[in-house]
Structure formats: C-alpha cells, structure tokens
Specification:
single chain, alpha+beta, Calcium-transporting ATPase, cytoplasmic transduction domain A, Rossmann fold, 5 domains, 35 helices, binds adenosine-5'-triphosphate
Length: 902
C-alpha cells in the first residue's frame, strides 16, 4: 500500500517527521505497543517432542518389549529397572538437548543485525529488533534491510531481493518511483524489504512494517525452518554408529545363540543380550557431538567469537592458513592523520593541533579546500557522543575538525546533491555539492588510482596543468609515507561552473575524469599490540598468516614486517601481478607469498582457491559487501562484527565481535580443543562399550556363568555413558599443548594417532579386570581347597546362586567403577593424572563421585540390593574391587601415550 503513496503521504500516515525522525519517547511507546521487530521462530521444539524423539529409537522399543515381558513373567524389579533407566536416559537427553538449543538461540540473538536510525534529529545505531513503524533508517551497501521501508532517498541503491522474488540480479531502487495498484515485491521500486541485502549505494527509508507484518514475515510461515546442518564429524559418526550397531547387535545375537546352545536360562539370556545390545550400540554418538559443539559455541562467545555454522568449529581445528585483512584486524583501526602533502609540500601534523598555535597546515595554500573536501566526501558521522562510520573517514573528519571545520555546518553549507559511493574494487568515492560558489565535486581514494584521473593540480591557489615531474613528486611523497606504514588517501576536486546543468542531474552523477589534484593525507594505524604474539603463536601452531589488503604494497609490507608476516618484498604480491598470472601459476607460488596488496575482493576468491588447491585449510577474514564470495569460498569465512557489513556476516561461518586478529587464534585453539574433546568422549564411549561386550562374550564363550545381569548393564550404561562422556566433551584443555603442534589433517579419522589403540586396549583391559573380578571368589575357594583352577571347577562352583550373585556383584562393581577411572585418565592421555587439575573440570569430578556413589548404593541399600540381585560387600572386598577397577588409570600412568595432533 505504501508503494503507491508519495513520501509525504507515507510520513503523514505513519505520523513521522521526515527531517528528524520519531522522538525517542514516541519510538518507545510504539515498541511497547507493537512488540520487537523480530520474526517468530518456529524451529523451537517442545519438551514433548524432545521426549518423543528420545524414545523413538528401535532399541528403546526392544527394551520396552523386554520390560513388558519381564512384567508378564512377574520379574517386577527387572521391568522397573528397565523402565527407570529408559526414563532417566530420556530425561538426561532432553536436558542436554534443551541446553544445546538454548545456547544456539542465544547465539542467534547475538548475531542479529543493527540499524542506523534517525531519532530526534540524531543518528544512532540500535539493534534492528528495536525498530518501530515510522522510524527513519539509513542503509548502505552491505547492510541487511532491517524492516520493510518506503524509501525517501536513494543513491545508486541496489538490493538483492532473491529471498523474496527468486531474482538473483540485484534490483535497482528509486525513492521517487510511484507504482499504481497492487504489485508484487519485485515491482515496488520505491520500497525495500526486510532481510534483503543492499548490494550497492545508500538510501534512507521510513519503516512501514516490522516483524511478522513485513513481506518476509508474511511468508515466514511458509518457509521451512532450515534443518540443522550435520557436521562432517557427525556424518562420519552416524555411519560409524550404524556400523557398530550392526556389529553389536550381531554379537548379541551370536551370544544369545551360544547361550541357548549351552542350555542357559533362555529368558535371562535374552534379556541380557538385549540389554547388552542397548548398552553397546553407540546411538548417542552424534548427540554427544551436537551437545559438545553447541556448548562450546556458547563458550566461544566469551572470547568474542560467534559461530554461525556449527560444522565450522570442527574445521577450525584443522586450519593451517589464516588470511587476514590488514585494516582493523591486524591494526587497531584507530586512525589519525599525521602527515599531509599539500601544495607540493609534506607537512608533519602528528601531535599538533591543526587549529592551535601550530597553524602550519592552515597557512598552506589550498588547506581550506583540502579539509573541506575530505570532510564533505565522507559518510562517517561525528557527533557529541557518537562516532559512526569508517575509521579512515573518521580520521579525516577529525583532521578537518582540528582545522576548525564543523561537520554539520559545513555539510549544511555544501549540501550533497550526488555521489558515487566507495567500493573497494574502485578504491575511491566521489560526492557532488551545491556550495555558495557553485557546484563542486570531491573525489577521494587511493593515490595511484586517483592520479590517473587528474589532469590538473591545485598549486598556490590556482588550478594548473599537472606536470609529469609533479606527478613523480606526488608518487614519491606517497611512497615515502607508505613505507612508514601510513595509509595514504588522495583528494581531488572538480568545479562545475556555469555549464553545470542541474536539471539533468537529479541523482547527481559526478565526473571522475579530468580532476584537479589537491593533496594527500597519511594516517597511522598502528598494529594491535596482541597481533605480534598471535602471529608468532600461529607459527608455532603450524598456521601461516597471510595478509590480504586493499592498501598500498609499501604500507602493507611496512606493517607486515615487524609483525613477522613477511620479511622481504619477494614475499609480497600486488593485485596487478596477480592479474598477470593464470590459476596454475598462482597455485605454484601461493605458498611462498605472505602479503597480497592492492587487491580487490575478486582477487581474494582467487587467492583462497589457489591456497585450497594446494591442500591448505583456509580461514579468511572479510568485512565488505564484496567479500562475501571469498568468505563463502574459504573453508572458514570470518566476518568482522564491529566494522563488517551484514552481507559479510551472513556469508560467514564465524564472526569476530572485536574484529581482532588475535581472536582468531583463540577460535582456532578452541576448535582444536573441541575436536580433541569430542574425540576423547567418543573413544571413551567406544572403549567402555567394547569392554562390556567382551566381558560378556568371553564369559559365555568360556562356558562360565553370566557375569552381568541385564539390569547391571543398563545401570552401568546410565552412570557412565551420560555425565562422564559429557564431562570429557567439555573438558578444559591445555592451550599450550594444543597450540604447540601442527593442526590435524582434515582427512584424519577418529581412530588415527592412537585412537584405535585406546579403544581396543582399554576395552580389553576393562573386560579383563571385570572377568578377574568375576573369578576372584571361585579362585579363592579353589585355592583354599587345593583344587586346580579349571573351567569345569569354576562352572560347578557358579551353580550356587548365592556365589554367582557375589561374583556378578564383583564384576558389576568393577566394570562400573573401572569406566569411571578410565574417564579420569581420558581427560588427557598425555598427562599424568597427578598433573591434571581436578577442579578444572567440575562436571567430571561430580560425575565420578556420583558414579561411585550410585555404584556403592546398589550393593548397600537393601531394596536396591534386592532389585539388582547383588550382595552386600565387606570393606576388604571393596578394597580388592577398587584396586582392580583402578587398573585403567594405572595403565594410563604407565602408558602416557600421545594422542591428538602428535
Ligand atoms: P584491508 O583490506 O586491509 O581492510 P583496506 O581498508 O585498505 O584494507 P579497502 O577497504 O578495500 O581495503 O580499501 C582499498 C583502498 O581504497 C584503500 O587502501 C584506500 O586507498 C581506499 N579507501 C579506503 N576507504 C576509503 C574511503 N572511505 N573513501 C575513499 N577511498 C577509500
């Protein structure tokens, strides 16, 4: 409806002031009345659904059938135990999933976009969720449209509306366009719609609809929530899980068949085989990965990293090349103009107030125009309490302010009537102004590009033809500043006297040819103090740092050298050199280049491609709208949270909320730790389950009594598979240990580097000690009677149900406790348990203590003793059993094998 209303009508309808926007109070009222500007999220699962999902497993069905069968046979305690275990498993599963869901939702909120809104005559940046109908919003290239807007001003404004229209070519917009009659979103040239992305230009618009009233809100119900993407590890685990399930079930069937052949109690063996299958099938593996990833992701927020795609956490640990842009990531992005080149003279203005006693700059011919030009040809905003915009421009405005120019007044005096916005591929921008002395255009940008467009120079207050020698002097001045790590921006102007036809220039298309060169501004942007250490740490961790910048090669090298990224010019390559190479040539040299300068976003895609072609796992940072393809092409696309655009953010896998290079190091460290933890949890689960199967299998094969009852297996499964495995998954890791070695290979499997050994060795060890425990009593009896320890003799002894119950209690206790000891050792297979910090992993401490307690009460509390068919144990028996159960930890100390990353 607003598309066929004029701007004035729209403003009147929405009761807003087109010049100053809504007042803060009015906005608050409207927010209170209409609620936040967020799309309803229907991806949330209800508790009931989660419970149902937990129970909707074939093996759980089998277990429930087994419970019903026990009930039918009046084995009430067995049935109860099964039901309790199933219920508790479901509860634990739901709690864990709920936690994971909450963590992910919190992340979604963190990653939500902001909007530049005009309220009470002042611009401020607010969360897009706080926008209300009637608000005036400014959007520029790279922004995501925060609500439906009726445009009131547009300049070269194009929007990617593929989300709504399916049209992949960006749609041009025009605030002055008027439609007639109802039209689809694609026809509304004077409107911009929520969640679509600005590809170029800038615009102002009145918010016409928020949240579910927007075009996207209306179809949000139709759009299916995107299913959670599985990580490569999850996929591999699901396959492994399937394979192991088949193996486990087959083994259990074989076990049952053998037992039947041995004329054992069929029902009991059936129950045992089913329980063993349930315990041994690692159906929880992918779930553990999801939970660990989700929890770790919320931990990462604390180190300023927002993970947007879960699978990237896994890849992070394998990254071996980090491509970083310079400005703001490696450097502080707190620029300050320290040198100006004006009227053929280089002047140092660092530490001086250009308006104060040292008026050296102001006295130079053209200084006024120079300051004015930089100030007017900028989109940044400095007000009393806010600094919004690009730091390069903020530095230039500050320089002009130092020379006594007020931004608001100057802008009012020279209203902008046209512009060609900045694009990093063009490396310049132009604005057109209607000033008191006629129309004037200012162009600012990189010196080399701008010089090509200048035919005149402003010298001694006059416009003169630009001579070759002057060109040479300018380039020399630029190189001098660049080699001192200064970022150099040039300024040129063009007067449109007399001949200027305003009528034909409504949107203002200024020229960028035949310009008059005015001067250069050189600004420092010191490296972040933590960058130096981060680059060194990366080196130690086998990760190469590559600088990719749009800036001049000399400036780039001057910053890269002290940081240790590059030593000589031979390690640098410029965009034009890159253009001269084909992909094969580039791939052959790429591993020896550490600085790419004067590159455009298109170059970044080629660089990523070449690095990947050499087998590297590449993380790449980006901030601009044009960086999106490179971010997508990289194994891990990293967007800047502070100064990055929404487009870059939505194309990325991960966002740095502090734009800081050193944060990438923390993220990679976390990525390695998380992978290591998941591996630990999985190997622990597999080895424990393997131990259970072997214990049972060996006993049955040897024709001995069954060492474990169905209820025992389920109980052990309950106490070891949930908390200890999760505790391993969220273990705190030694960063030194993680970052002092090269990254793992992306193709490396879980069983590599000792993984298979751990699974088999500890599985066999646990089975061995459990069987020893099972045979301890018969051995004692036979020994005291002076009889030989034969299978037949043992079997005869085990015919006595009381003795069998004691032996089973031994095996049960040792099997349960040994897995707890095993979990402690698995925290770090390379470190002695005496050197591990106990309280660094409180969940592990809690789960082990709780596990011991639970294992203790099944043999001590009379009704549990009865339910589990166990016997009460004496003190000395506990001593023997704890000694046996501690063997995995003893083995851990003896082995201290090295696992991940070695
Ligand atoms: P990095 O890629 O390391 O962040 P960068 O900021 O120099 O470096 P771009 O933003 O692509 O990369 O800028 C490229 C060049 O364009 C800069 O070196 C500078 O010469 C010029 N430039 C940067 N910002 C502006 C601007 N706001 N207006 C005009 N020219 C600019």
């Amino acid at each position: 409806m607003y598309e066929d209303q004029t701007i004035r009508q729209t403003a009147a309808h929405l009761k807003t002031d087109i010049k100053n926007g809504l007042t803060e109070e009015e906005a608050r009222e409207r927010l209170k009345k209409n609620g936040p500007n967020v799309l309803a999220d229907d991806s949330r699962k209800s508790v009931l659904t989660m419970v149902f999902e937990q129970l909707n497993e074939p093996l759980i069905y089998v277990l429930l059938v087994a419970a019903a069968a026990s009930l039918f046979l009046k084995e009430v305690s067995d049935a109860l135990i099964i039901i309790i275990v199933v219920a508790m498993n479901a509860v634990i599963g739901v709690i864990q999933e709920g936690k994971a869901q909450k963590a992910l939702e919190a992340l979604k909120r963190l990653a939500s976009p902001h909007a530049l809104v005009l309220r009470g005559g002042h611009f401020s940046k607010i969360p897009a969720s706080e926008l209300v109908a009637g608000d005036l919003v400014k959007v520029t290239a790279g922004d995501q449209i925060p609500a439906d807007l009726r445009l009131v001003f547009t300049s070269h404004f194009k929007v990617d509306e593929s989300l709504l229209t399916g049209e992949s070519v960006p749609a041009g917009k025009d605030a002055l366009f008027l439609t007639e009659g109802p039209k689809g979103p694609g026809d509304c040239k004077n409107m911009a719609f929520m969640s679509t992305g600005v590809t170029s230009g800038s615009a102002m618009g009145i918010v016409t609809a928020c949240a579910m009233d927007t075009q996207i809100g209306k179809i949000a119900g139709l759009l299916k929530a995107t299913p959670q993407e599985s990580t490569p590890l999850q996929k591999r685990l699901a396959d492994l899980g399937k394979f192991l399930s088949i193996v486990a079930v087959t083994l259990c069937v074989v076990l049952f068949v053998i037992a039947v052949g041995q004329r054992r109690n069929i029902l009991e063996m059936l129950m045992t085989a089913i329980s063993l299958a349930v315990a041994a099938v690692p159906e929880g593996l992918p779930a553990i990965v999801t939970i660990v990833l989700a929890l770790s992701v919320s931990r990462m927020v604390k180190v300023n990293v927002i993970i947007r795609r879960l699978p990237c956490v896994e890849t992070l640990g394998a990254v071996n090349v980090v491509c970083s842009d310079k400005t703001g990531t490696l450097t502080q992005n707190q620029m300050m103009v320290t040198k100006v080149y004006l009227n053929g003279k280089l002047t140092d203005i660092s530490g001086t107030d250009t308006s104060g006693a040292d008026c050296s700059v102001r006295d130079i011919a053209g200084a006024d125009l120079f300051m004015k030009g930089f100030l007017l040809c900028s989109d940044a905003l400095i007000s009393e309490n806010e600094r919004i915009g690009d730091p390069t421009e903020l530095a230039l405005i500050e320089m002009a302010a130092g020379a006594g120019l007020e931004q608001e007044k100057t802008q009012a005096c020279y209203p902008r009537i046209g512009e060609i916005p900045f694009e990093s591929s063009r490396k310049m921008m132009t604005t057109l102004h209607d000033g008191p002395d006629g129309v004037i255009g200012f162009t600012k940008g990189s010196c080399d590009i701008l010089l090509e467009r200048c035919t005149y120079i402003y010298m001694d207050g006059q416009i003169q033809p630009l001579r070759k020698s002057q060109r040479g002097d300018i380039l020399k001045a630029m190189e001098g500043m660049s080699s001192r790590a200064l970022r150099v921006l040039a300024l040129a102007f063009c007067r449109y006297e007399g001949s200027f036809d305003r009528k034909n220039l409504p949107a203002g298309i200024p020229k960028e040819e035949g310009l008059t060169f005015l001067g250069l501004a050189g600004m420092i942007d010191p490296p972040r103090p933590e960058t130096h250490q981060a680059v060194r740490d990366f080196m130690k961790a086998g990760v190469r740092t590559v600088m990719i910048t749009g800036d001049h090669l000399d400036t780039a090298l001057a910053i890269a050298r002290p940081l240790g990224i590059a030593r000589a010019r031979s390690e640098c390559m410029s965009g034009s050199q890159l253009d001269a190479m084909d992909d094969d040539q580039l791939a052959s040299v790429i591993d020896s280049v550490s600085v790419f300068a004067r590159v455009s976003p298109e170059h970044k895609v080629r660089i990523v491609g070449a690095l990947k072609a050499q087998g590297n796992i590449v993380a790449m940072t980006g901030d601009g709208v044009n960086d999106a393809p490179a971010l997508k092409a990289a194994d891990i696309g990293i967007a800047m949270g502070k100064n990055g655009t929404d487009t870059a953010r939505s194309a990325s896998d991960m966002v740095l909320t502090d734009d800081n290079f050193a944060t990438i190091k923390k993220a990679i460290g976390e990525g390695r730790a998380i992978y290591g933890n998941i591996k630990k949890a999985i190997l622990f689960l597999l080895s424990s389950n393997f131990g259970e199967i072997i214990t049972m299998f060996a006993a049955v094969l040897l024709g001995l009594g069954t060492p474990l009852k169905a209820s025992h297996i389920l109980w052990i499964n309950l106490i070891t598979d949930s908390l200890p495995a999760l505790a391993l998954g969220i273990d705190k890791n030694d960063q030194h240990q993680l970052m002092d070695r090269p990254p793992r290979k992306a193709s490396e499997g879980l069983f590599a580097k000792g993984g298979l050994f751990v699974t088999l060795f500890y599985g066999c060890l646990i089975a061995f000690i459990s069987l020893c425990a099972f045979l301890t009593v018969p051995y004692g009896i036979l020994k005291s009677q002076g009889m030989a320890m034969t299978l037949q003799a043992i079997e005869n002894l085990l015919q006595d149900p009381e003795l069998l119950a004691r032996c089973q209690t031994y095996a049960f206790t040792v099997l349960g406790m040994s897995q707890l000891f095993h979990a402690i050792g698995m925290r770090n297979v390379e470190r002695s348990v005496f050197k591990m910090k106990l309280f660094e992993n409180p969940l592990m401490t809690i789960s082990v203590v709780l596990g011991f307690f639970l294992q203790f009460i099944v043999t001590e509390i009379p009704w549990l003793v009865q339910a589990f068919g166990t016997v009460r144990l004496m003190g000395y028996e506990w001593g023997i059993l704890i000694f046996l159960a501690a063997m995995p930890l003893v083995a851990h100390e003896l082995l201290l094998i090295r696992l991940p990353g070695k």
